[in-house]
Structure formats: C-alpha cells, structure tokens
Recover the amino acids of this structure.
C-alpha cells in the first residue's frame, strides 16, 4: 500500500478480520431467494417474445388456464395503468410507464425475450408447460439493433410518442418528429476551435463497443405474497430493498407502507439487480391466486431480458502540443439504451475526460432506443466505453509524440482545484498519486520478454455515489453492539461498516454484530451501488458512534455527579473524568455498558443521513499480453491494478473489489459480447457462448492500493468497487497495439477480430 | 420439462426391447449431459428414458496390446482420460475427453453419448475418427458395427435406426511407430465449444509417413475425415513443407458456416493451423514410443 502522510493511525480500520456472513456462505446455510419456501407457494414462469420487434395483436390464455395445476395467467393489462413520470432508483431512474411495459409488454414487444405473459402453477414444470399453451398473435415489425442506425431518420421507430429536439453533428431531429433519440446532452468548456488551433497533433478516431452483461452467478428471483388484508411481502435478491419497495408501490399503485421487502443474500449484482423484473409479476399473480408466488429466471432469460450495458459508438478527437500537453477534445458519444430510454450516456459524458486537465472540450451524448434489452447499470455505468475511447486516442498521441504514456498522463493530470468537464473544481483527488505509483511500480519497470508481447496502460475514473443511508445500533449491557443495516451486502459491507463503528467507539470489531434487515426494520437506505455503501454507510456508522459516545458520556457524568462536558470519551473506548469530589475516575466501554440498565436503560440509536461529499476514484492499470499470431488468441501475462482508495477499511475486500472489476473489464476487452442473428434474436444467452473469463483465463491480478484520504469522510473513505472496471478495455487494447502493431477500434478484441487483422484480406 | 418415464435396463436385450416398445419418443440415457438438457429446453420430445448404465458391457473398459481398446458407450469421460493405457497409447482420446465440459460433466458424459449426440463440433468424435474407432451397435435387428467416420450424417443426425443404441467403441491397437494427437481452438482456456478441432493419427518409418488419418470438427455439417491431408502426408518425409501441405488440404476441405463462435475465414484458417499442430504432435508421439 502507498499511503499519504495524512492518514491517521487506526486500530480497526486497515485490519483484515473475517466477514460476519462468511461461515453461513461457505457452509451453504446463507438464505438466498431460491431458498424461500412458503406454505401453499405457487411457481411462476414467464412467456417471452420470439421477435426483435412486434405488435401484439391478440393473447389467448384460455388453454393455459385450463391446464390442471395452473392457477393464474397475467399480462400487462393486469397492472394498474401508468402515467409517465420519474422514479428514482438510486443508481439511475425509471419512468413507471416504461418500467411496467418492460416487466410485461404492453401493445408491442421491443426485443427478443421481452416478457409477454406470466403463469402461476402448482409446480414449475406445469408453469413451463402452460407457457406453450398461451396463444400470442404477433405482427413482426422492422427492428433496429445498431445504435447509429437507430439514430437515422429512416430507422424503425420503437416509441411513437418519443420526441427529442436534437440539432447537432449532422443529426437533425426537430421536436415534432418521431425519433429513437431519447436524449441529447452537451457539455462545453473553453474554446475548442482555439484549442485545436494550438495543437501540433490532432488524432480523431471512431470506436464501437459491444453489449456486455453483468454476469452475476445468481439469476433474478422474487417471491411475493399479497395477503388478503392488502399487505404485500416480497423476498428477493436485490441491491436495494427500498428501491424494490418504491418500484413495487408505483407499479402496483399501492401505499409504500403496505409493502415490505425482505432482502435475501445476493449472488452478485454489479448494478443489474436494481430494476425490478419478476417481483411485480409475482405480486399480481399472488393477488390473483391468494397464494405466495415464487419466480426465478432461467439463465437465458437473464441474458435476454435483464440489464446488459449499452452498445456504443464513440468518436473522439483530441489535440496535443509536441510536449504532450493536451489542448482540446471533441467527443461524440452514442449509447444504445435498449428498448426504453435511459442509458448511462450521462455518466459516459461526465467521466470521459475526467482523467485529464483539459481546458477546451466539447462532449455530445445521445441516449438512443434500440430493439435490445433495456440496459441497466453495470459497474461504473457508462464510464468504461467513453474512457476506453479517450484512453486509446491518448495512447496513439503518446506513441506519435514518442512520449512515455504515463509521463504524458502525469503532465495532464487533474488535481485539487483544477476543473473537470463541467467546470467544477476537483476536491482532493489521487490522480497524480496513482500515476506516480504506476511509474514506480515493479511491473511498469520490468522488461517484456518474448515475441508478440506488448504492454498497455490506461487510466479510469469514477465519481462514486453518496446518497442516503440508515442504520441503528443497540448497545447491550455486556458491551456487545447489534448493528442494523439497510444496505444489502454485496461486497463485504457488513464487515466494513461494523469496522467503522468499532473504530469510532474504540471497541473491537468482534463485539459488533451487523445484520441486514427488511424495509420495515430500518430507515430508508439507497441501493448498494455507485460504490457508495462503505462511504455513506460508514458516515452513518461514524455518526452512530458519535451519538453512542455522547450518551455514554452522559451516563458517566450522571454516575460521577458532574456535567457531561467534564467527561472525556477516549478513542480507546475508555471514559475518563473527575467525579464531584475531584477524584479521577474512569470506565472502560464494558464497565459503563454494565451500568446502563441501572442508569436509565439500554441505549438504542438510529441515524438517517445523506452525504454528498464523495471522493472520486482514479485507477490505472498495466497489462502485459502475448498474442498467438496463428490463432489470434491473447494471453494476459501480467496485470496490475493501481487505485486511489482513500482509506482501505478492509484491505482484503478492497483488493477483491479491484480484482473483480479488473477481471470483468478484461472479459469485456477480449471475450464478452452479445451476439444477435439477422433476425435480431440474441443467440448467445448462456455462459457457454457469452464468454466471461474463467479463473484460468486470467493471470493473478496484482493490486497496489494508493491511499489519498477523502476529506469528505471521517475516515477518508472513497468508493472502490466501480473504478477498476474502467481501465481494462483500453489497457488491453493498447497492449495489443504494442504487441502486434495493430490499433483496434472495436471491443471486445476477440481472436476472430485479431485474425481478421493479421490474415491477408480476401 | 414434461413428466416422463424412466426405465432401467440391465441387459442389452432388455434395453432394445424397452426402446422398441417406447417408440419414437424413447431415448437412451447414459450420462444425460445432452439429452436431459434437450428435454428440459424442449428441443427434443422425450417420453421415456432407458437408462443403460446398468448394463455391464456399456460400462466396461478393456485394453490389450494385441486387440486394442474397447470403451463401453456410457463409461464416464474421467475414467477414459484417467486410464494410463489411454494416456500412453491414445493421447488423442485423452486430450479430447479431458476438455469436454468441466469436472462435473466429465463424471457423467461418455464417448457413446458424444457420438450419439452427433454434434458437428463434438470434441471426441474427430479423435475417435482419427483412431479409426468402430461403434458396436445393438438394435431390434441384432448387432452391427459402424466405423465412427461413417456414423454421423448431419448436425444431430446419425446412422442409428429406431431402437438402436451404441454399446461400445473399439479402437485398434496402433502399429509400431504410430502416434496420435488432438487439439482444438477455443477463445477461453476451458469450458467452451470448439471453434475448430482436429485430430491426427499417423505411422512413421524413419522420417517417412506410411499411414495417416486426419479428422476435423466444427467445419462442416458433421465432423469430417480429411483424406487430402492424409494423402499429403503418406509416402513423404515429414518436413515443414509436407506438414504445410496437409494443413492446406485441411483448409481446402473445411466448409464451415459463420456463426457466433467463428467466421468462415477464421475456421478455414484454424483448420490449417490445427492440422499442422496435430500432425507435429502425432509425429512426436510416434517418435516417443
């Protein structure tokens, strides 16, 4: 670890204790959504559209309903009618009208695999059997998959009520015309014409990226029980139990208080387990049948109908002076949102140039609907595609100017006080510290050996989220503390939050028992997403700690007969002061806790807090690759991920987050992509043909933690989970350029595409 | 998955009777790694599974330096690649069976199943073809033998008639100075389906190739023999040029489709590359024995 001098000495923070949920998870006792079993439970299954785009002319469910064992069949018409509006999902938002149409299609199906109808039956096999008995008459419509084609005036239109006023870059869509462009945004800073006029070299390139899936091991699932008294309980795998509750309330038109969401353990989310898919369907099936209904998605449906990323088309033009100073950038980013508006192009725009201090810039972003699954957040949503394109062009400029790529990045690095794309000044950031750590790393200073080997580097940036979190803590007379959390635990946050409470009280981590509870048992908490939980939840843990300290000081003061102001709570958890007779007194934490019942009772505190003092994260990766020129196969020989993590609360989990992000990014760089046939049908909806890397496809991922504490957090925490997925696509692409002399402009760079470049043209 | 019947046969005759009575929707169940998935995904209508794993002939494996290797059709792959004689004498078979699926699949999947499923991209079939394997088949009209290279007739189609099933596979003992090898190309390092796979068995007399069999997978509607590649080798010294000529013949013989796993250009090129690699590896094996 590389720490800056301002990091204080902590007792608990920075250690690597075992996680509270570890034993249950390794012994199989942890309860996931698939483990939910309720008395009288039915099983639900979903019929999905076979076409890329079609009008539903007729649905006849009578034969399915007649099958013995079938208890209900529902369609979109069984949901309350929805008006357009905005529903905050924590990471992204949704229009309830589009959300319900995605959950079960309205008058049109908009992508292959779009949910059309659902069945509840006494067992899963009967439900599946019944799907085949639902008659749907479709009128297939022309479809569009490619984002640039979808922007053309001649493209098939997905939503006839969509209007956007776009007048830029050759796109001309007046407000009164049907369009697939759902949103156009532009940010500008400085004067790009003047900037490019200063440039000695200008490089302009176009890039495309394929659609990637989050690839969580646990498929979407949800069990709902709509009780006869109108109370609705949902058991599900989600990143945000409150987000599920609020989406359910909107889609079912029910009061929030009637809905309780019980978050089960979660087998991965990466942003994809924020929108609801099955839960509202299970709820209306339960309402119809009066019985609990359990649903889960087969893997193919997970690929067909849940959150991939946007496929993107991006044009990047950057000018530099001979000495490597970047002077101007002009970007055009087109992101496919999938079937309904709402890609992450906004974050793509805001992150694209964040690793650079660049005076003159203009970035246009387009959100475009296409006949593909509605995209969902995926780890630093929007950032990897735009930053990949920028990092590739910067690499080409560094090569052309014969400047070390990290030297060039250091020269242009942002720092506290310089401004980003929006013109807002940066708080304390670790961009320069990360670049310096790369330059000084053993990997960067090692020699490459062998033929057709190459090294690439790239930077990555992510804002990190703040938002609202809640927790409660109950202090017990034996000195133990129950910590109640609203954040579902994806990446070890039970541990990281308990550690921060322990630090704040000067007690040991083992004395705190953290648990994740349902939405009726804790205050509102936003999703576990945006790399926010250890940051924002940590703030809450700290504030809980301060409140507990205050109350314990009051108890000591009462016992000693003095004012609380005369009593001190030490960071070691020992309370000291003088009693009313002027005699020095002290209580250890355990001693004062023993006195709680007799001095006014137990202590229970709750905190709900919203903090937006997030610390942005910078990452830099180094990749060494070897290419087999005969087969096009790439072996990643060595990989190092460097990142400013603020303060690593639990360094092992921080390293794990960074390794996981790098692994997913390497998959996107080399192997993973959605593959549609000429009818717009997704053909590789399985882990067999959607090729995420497996363990032996990856080298050990070395991690160097840089700690530049976030001044906006009591312990200096920055979010860490998302930034590491940003650099790999460009780092690998730049390494391939180094290895075989070919610049690639599409990712993933599969063996097929490498051979295409290496073999003679036919 | 629909409700279906399961029956356990303990003899070849009993299995034949069960299959005949079950009619068109009866299916042999060995490891089930293909058929159960097909039934669940409704790609095949199956009303009856006839489990053949309790028939001794179907589960046995014998090797003899005179007669060669016989593998029961349902012997799980881990027993095939874990067998020391297979590793020593038939490395092509060892290599091909070692990479089908993961460990769990290899505990159930079998050579008979892989052949009966008749996928054009099947990993073990080119190895069995190069080794001149022969399938022993039982059916309502008695027993017959079919060479593996004549078994598959199209994607998922083969010479089996209704009521017939594969009992075992036999591989002759290679003559002295023979070697064999198998290789595939996949984008990942494991758990993947071949973009192309290739196998070669050859015999050397000094530096000269006296016999050769070359097979390819995933480049045609069935796995194929490549007689042109064998012709390029037989009677010639095994030089770089000879090997390149075999590769070129393989590239010529390949008639692949373009799909999500690869392009025509890539598959034809890989046919060349992999055939050259397996020829070299087979020669190395031959020289090591």
């Amino acid at each position: 670890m590389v720490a800056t001098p301002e990091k204080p000495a902590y007792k608990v923070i920075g250690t690597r204790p075992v996680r509270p949920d570890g034993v249950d998870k390794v012994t199989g006792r942890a309860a996931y959504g698939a483990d939910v079993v309720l008395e009288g439970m039915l099983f639900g299954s979903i019929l999905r559209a076979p076409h890329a785009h079609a009008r539903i002319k007729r649905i006849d469910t009578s034969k399915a309903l007649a099958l013995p064992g079938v208890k209900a069949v529902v369609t979109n018409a069984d949901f309350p009618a929805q008006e357009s509006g905005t529903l905050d999902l924590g990471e992204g938002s949704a229009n309830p009208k589009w959300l319900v149409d995605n959950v079960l299609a309205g008058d049109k199906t908009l992508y292959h695999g779009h949910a059309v109808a659902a069945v509840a039956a006494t067992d899963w096999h009967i439900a599946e059997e019944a799907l085949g008995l639902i008659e749907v008459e479709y009128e297939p419509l022309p479809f569009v998959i490619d984002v640039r084609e979808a922007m053309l005036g001649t493209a098939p239109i997905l939503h006839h009520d969509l209007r956007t006023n776009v007048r830029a870059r050759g796109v001309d869509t007046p407000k009164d015309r049907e369009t697939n462009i759902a949103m156009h945004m532009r940010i500008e800073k400085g004067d790009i014409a003047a900037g490019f006029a200063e440039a000695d070299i200008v490089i302009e390139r176009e890039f495309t990226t394929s659609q990637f899936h989050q690839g969580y091991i646990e498929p979407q699932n949800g069990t709902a029980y709509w009780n006869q008294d109108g109370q609705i309980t949902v058991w599900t795998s989600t990143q945000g139990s409150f987000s599920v509750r609020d989406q359910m309330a909107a889609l079912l038109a029910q009061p929030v208080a009637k809905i309780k969401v019980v978050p089960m353990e979660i087998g991965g989310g990466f942003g994809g387990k924020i929108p609801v898919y099955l839960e509202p369907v299970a709820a209306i099936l339960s309402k119809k049948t009066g019985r609990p209904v359990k649903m889960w998605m087969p893997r193919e449906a997970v690929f067909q109908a849940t959150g991939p990323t946007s496929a993107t088309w991006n044009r990047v033009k950057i000018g530099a002076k001979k000495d490597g100073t970047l002077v101007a950038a002009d970007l055009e980013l087109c992101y496919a949102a999938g079937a309904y508006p709402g890609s992450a192009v906004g974050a793509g725009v805001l992150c694209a140039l964040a690793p650079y201090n660049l005076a003159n810039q203009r970035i246009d972003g387009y959100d475009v609907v296409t006949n593909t699954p509605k995209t969902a957040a995926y780890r630093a949503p929007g950032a990897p595609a735009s930053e990949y394109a920028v990092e590739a062009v910067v690499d080409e400029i560094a090569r052309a100017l014969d400047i070390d790529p990290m030297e060039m990045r250091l020269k242009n690095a942002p720092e506290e006080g310089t401004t980003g794309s929006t013109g807002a000044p940066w708080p304390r950031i670790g961009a320069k510290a990360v670049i310096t750590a790369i330059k000084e790393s053993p990997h960067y200073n090692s020699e490459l050996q062998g033929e057709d080997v190459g090294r690439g580097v790239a930077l990555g940036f992510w804002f990190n989220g703040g938002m609202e979190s809640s927790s409660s803590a109950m202090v017990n007379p034996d000195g133990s503390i129950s910590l109640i959390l609203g954040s579902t635990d994806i990446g070890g946050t039970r541990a990281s939050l308990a550690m921060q409470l322990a630090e704040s009280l000067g007690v040991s981590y083992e004395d705190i028992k953290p648990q994740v509870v349902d939405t009726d048992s804790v205050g509102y908490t936003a999703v576990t997403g945006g790399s926010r939980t250890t940051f924002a939840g940590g703030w809450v843990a700290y504030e809980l700690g301060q409140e507990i300290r205050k109350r314990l000081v009051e108890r000591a003061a009462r016992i000693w007969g003095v004012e609380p102001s005369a009593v001190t709570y030490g960071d070691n958890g020992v309370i000291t002061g003088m009693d009313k007779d002027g005699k020095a007194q002290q209580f250890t934490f355990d001693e004062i806790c023993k006195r709680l019942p007799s001095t006014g009772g137990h202590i229970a505190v709750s905190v709900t807090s919203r903090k937006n003092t997030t610390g942005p994260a910078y990452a830099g990766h180094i990749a060494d690759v070897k290419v087999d020129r005969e087969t096009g196969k790439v072996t990643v020989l060595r990989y190092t991920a460097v990142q400013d993590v603020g303060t690593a609360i639990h360094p092992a989990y921080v390293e794990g987050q960074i390794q996981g992000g790098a692994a997913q990014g390497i998959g996107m760089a080399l192997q993973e992509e959605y593959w549609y046939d000429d009818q717009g049908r997704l053909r590789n909806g399985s882990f067999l043909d959607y090729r995420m890397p497996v363990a032996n496809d990856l080298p050990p991922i070395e991690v160097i933690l840089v700690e530049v504490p976030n001044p906006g957090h009591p312990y200096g925490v920055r979010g860490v989970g998302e930034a590491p997925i940003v650099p790999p696509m460009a780092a690998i692409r730049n390494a391939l350029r180094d290895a075989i002399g070919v610049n690639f402009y599409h990712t993933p760079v599969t063996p097929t595409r490498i051979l295409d470049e290496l073999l003679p043209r036919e | 998955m629909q409700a279906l019947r399961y029956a356990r046969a303990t003899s070849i005759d009993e299995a034949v009777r069960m299959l005949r009575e079950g009619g068109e929707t009866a299916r042999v169940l060995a490891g089930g790694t293909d058929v159960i998935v097909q039934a669940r995904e409704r790609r095949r209508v199956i009303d009856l599974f006839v489990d053949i794993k309790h028939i001794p002939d179907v589960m046995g494996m014998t090797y003899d330096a005179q007669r060669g290797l016989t593998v029961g059709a349902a012997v799980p792959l881990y027993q095939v690649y874990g067998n020391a004689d297979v590793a020593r004498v038939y490395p092509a078979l060892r290599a091909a069976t070692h990479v089908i699926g993961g460990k769990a699949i290899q505990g159930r999947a079998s050579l008979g199943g892989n052949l009966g499923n008749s996928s054009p991209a099947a990993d073990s079939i080119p190895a069995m073809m190069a080794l001149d394997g022969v399938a022993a088949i039982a059916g309502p009209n008695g027993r017959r033998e079919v060479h593996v290279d004549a078994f598959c007739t199209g994607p998922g189609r083969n010479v089996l008639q209704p009521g017939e099933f594969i009992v075992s596979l036999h591989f002759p003992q290679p003559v002295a100075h023979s070697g064999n090898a198998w290789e595939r190309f996949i984008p990942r390092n494991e758990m993947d389906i071949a973009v192309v796979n290739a196998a070669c068995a050859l015999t050397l007399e000094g530096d000269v190739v006296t016999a050769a069999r070359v097979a390819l997978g995933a480049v045609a509607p069935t796995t194929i023999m490549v007689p042109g590649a064998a012709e390029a080798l037989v009677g010639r010294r095994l030089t770089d040029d000879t090997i390149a000529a075999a590769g070129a013949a393989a590239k010529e013989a390949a008639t692949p489709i373009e799909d999500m796993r690869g392009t025509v250009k890539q598959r034809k090129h890989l046919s060349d590359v992999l055939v050259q690699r397996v020829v070299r590896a087979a020669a190395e094996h031959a020289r090591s024995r």
In short: The first helix of chain A runs from residue 22 to 27. Chain A has a mean pLDDT of 96. Chain A touches chain B through 27 residues (CB under 8 Å).
